[in-house]
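dude i think i finally got it to work??
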Amino acid sequence: MRAVLQRCLSANVIVENKIVGSIQKGFVVFLGIGKNDSEKDLDYLVKKICGLRIFEDEQNKMNLNPQSVGAEMLVISNFTLYANTEHGFRPDFLQSMMPQRAEEFVNSFVSKCKQNNVFKKINTGVFGADMKVTVENDGPVTIIFDTENLK
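look at this
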């Protein structure tokens, strides 16, 4: 699994000219599912993101986790994180998981994050839709996760 996480002050996602998800202070997670990903990858990513300490404490050190600051999370499925740009100028996405199964992984990721009761609110985009995402990046702080590094 690959995730690009951005700490934000606010964010929203629009599908067909309607806001389908919005958050205030927290994380925007662009989530890509690889064809070889497993529950182990999913559980690892949930644990890392739910415990990530990238909010400043009173000494301006990144030391606080999402729960301690009342953070929210917006999850956006993003198969293009598995783009292969090695050859030519048109990327292929052969390493992405097939859509139906990938959607199950994304839903499971959201469900497991909700079960952790770390985030005040979790919203999502619409899987497979053309989404317009607006992020007011805070910092900027951007963290990249790739569970391939675990294997």
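The mean pLDDT is 97.
im so relieved honestly
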